[in-house]
Amino acid sequence: MQRLVAPSLLAADFTNLKRDIEIINNSEADWLHMDIMDGVFVPNISFGIPVVEAVHSISEKPLDVHLMIVQPERYIETFKNAGAHLLNVHYEACSHLHRTIESIHNSGMKAGVTLNPHTPVQLLEEIITDLDLVLIMSVNPGFGGQKFIPGSFEKIRKLKELILKKNSKALIEVDGGVDDTNAKALAEAGVDVFVAGSYVFKSENPAEAIRKIKYPV
């Protein structure tokens, strides 16, 4: 399968947000990743619904919305109406995960589940066939610019084995410390979708940075 790249808007220049989104529009990126943080589930606050709506009005890429919030089930329709294409909720934040995934699908969005670094992939065994995507956090969630956790490789391989075992169509996404030095190895481990923030938006040529992840040598 072709590798998908989803630049993370958290690393963009918020004083020139429209410019940075246009850069992504004109690149080979496939999605635009948006991290929604509430200051409760993770120790940081990012942006809310008005920003998602504004980004949706400019972005030509589907919005990959990652909810790092408590009680994400309360906001499914809200994010659908704001323009989310794929809604990603944390396993650790959902008391009734199957119901939440079902609600996301019923709203017309793709549904994903995110696992924090300490959460084993085996916990998804009973729901993996219902998912469109699983996001592996390769850093601790809440802040950009962190270093990649090496143990994520083994976790990705285990997730790939589970997907094949259960005949699931779920894609594997990875977020945290992704760049041109590990993109090839991540793809070989089973990653389909690469989230990259600082590596893309802090580079002199973001479009070229995206290309290096999408077509690693």
UniProtKB/TrEMBL annotation:
The active site is at D35 (proton acceptor), D175 (proton donor). GO terms for cellular component: cytoplasm. PROSITE patterns: RIBUL_P_3_EPIMER_1, RIBUL_P_3_EPIMER_2. CDD domains: RPE. GO terms for molecular function: D-ribulose-phosphate 3-epimerase activity; metal ion binding. Binds 1 divalent metal cation per subunit. Pathway: Carbohydrate degradation. Its EC number is 5.1.3.1. Its cofactor is Co(2+); a divalent metal cation; Zn(2+); Fe(2+). It catalyses: D-ribulose 5-phosphate = D-xylulose 5-phosphate. Keywords: Carbohydrate metabolism, Cobalt, Isomerase, Manganese, Metal-binding, Zinc. GO terms for biological process: pentose catabolic process; pentose-phosphate shunt. A divalent metal cation binds at H33, D35, H66, D175. Substrate binds at S8, H66, G142, F143, G144, G145, D175, G176, G177, G197, S198. Catalyzes the reversible epimerization of D-ribulose 5-phosphate to D-xylulose 5-phosphate. PANTHER family: RIBULOSE-5-PHOSPHATE-3-EPIMERASE. Belongs to the ribulose-phosphate 3-epimerase family. This is Ribulose-phosphate 3-epimerase.
